[in-house]
User: Fold this.
Amino acid sequence: MAERPDKSPKIVNLALDNPNLRHEVKTGESPDERASRLRREEAEAEHRIRAEAAANTHKRRIELIAVAVAFLTLIACLSIAAFKDPKTGLPEKAMTIIAGIVGALAGYLTGKTSR
Assistant:
């Protein structure tokens, strides 16, 4: 017949007397502590959401202003290139500005998807 394993208690040294180790005994949260922690976490999450929404709104507003300025500059340059006297040199300058705006727009559109 097979022998049964020894059921005597075994000594385990947790080295609690070692000064290099730290140990602490924690109790569970009380219902008041838990409710307080949850309220604080909810308030922090709500604040973070509001801050992100404000930052996104500000970013969209800046982008809208930049696009409006670029559009107005593009319209002005197109009208100069089409209707001004070529002897003044303004149409060449206007075409340079138009090329810059188109290049910046292409760079913005290709860079926006890679973020």
